[in-house]
Write a structure and sequence with these properties.
alpha/beta; five-stranded antiparallel β-sheet; five-stranded parallel β-sheet; about 230 residues
Length: about 230
């Protein structure tokens, strides 16, 4: 199971605590929780979780389906975790795009299984794409369009030909999401798409006019990748 940051939206504090405990026992990371849609959206923009668990019945005028509609706009994956199975609710849910629908009450094993399967299917559907969070939004980027990634403290820049994204993850974390058939590490602070390399010198390579350093320890690997591409 990959490292997944989860955010919980549940209006019953005891149930939220139970869900969090179950997730922690299964090896997930819980980055926060909320009882209403407004708080959840503010937190999600800041915390940028990988996955959101949504109860449908929430405090306030808006419910979990309203939240799901907003998450769909931002391309943030989520699962419903609710006891509501009436026809009216199901009809509203059909207008959204959840990864799944977990009915309460649930067991710890059932919760883990549903999340694992949902996340596995999500990754398969997005194979060839890099899912990243930047500027409070989730972006789905074709990996072929990425030029390179550059470390920036505990953050990372992802560069395409048209723009750059500052991502709240380390370069190491982001590199684990890359297609290793087309990406190579050229330096401790850089990963490069070999399909965009125009030329190479002794200690640097060029993407169009952008020079990227090559460390001595990585040069042989870079040359091997280029010859095999």
């Amino acid at each position: 199971m990959k490292f997944i940051n989860i955010y919980i939206v549940e209006d019953e504090p005891l149930i939220a605590a139970t869900i969090e405990t179950a997730l922690l026992k299964q090896g997930y990371t819980v980055v926060g929780d909320a009882e209403d849609v407004i708080t959840a959206l503010k937190d999600i923009a800041i915390l940028q979780p990988d996955l959101v668990l949504i109860d449908i019945q929430l405090d306030g005028e808006k419910d979990g389906v309203d939240l799901a509609i907003e998450l769909d706009k931002q391309q943030i994956p989520y699962l419903y975790l609710t006891s509501q199975t009436d026809l009216g609710t199901i009809q509203r849910v059909k207008a959204t795009q959840p990864l799944g629908y977990i009915v309460k009450p649930f067991t710890e094993n059932g919760l883990r299984t549903n999340i694992d399967l949902a996340w596995h299917n999500y990754e398969i559907q997005n194979a060839g794409f890099l899912i990243l969070k930047s500027d409070g939004r989730t972006h789905k980027i074709n990996q072929n369009s990425i030029l390179y990634l550059k470390a920036f403290d505990n953050y990372c820049y992802v560069y395409t030909a048209t723009r750059s994204y500052l991502v709240p993850h380390t370069l190491k974390y982001m590199s684990e999401q890359l297609n290793d058939a087309i990406f190579v590490q050229t330096h401790r602070s850089y990963w490069v798409n070999i399909n965009h390399i125009d030329s190479i010198e002794s200690n640097k390579l060029f993407l169009k006019t952008e020079p990227i350093p090559i460390s001595a320890s990585q040069k042989h690997l870079v040359m091997s990748k280029l010859k095999g591409s």
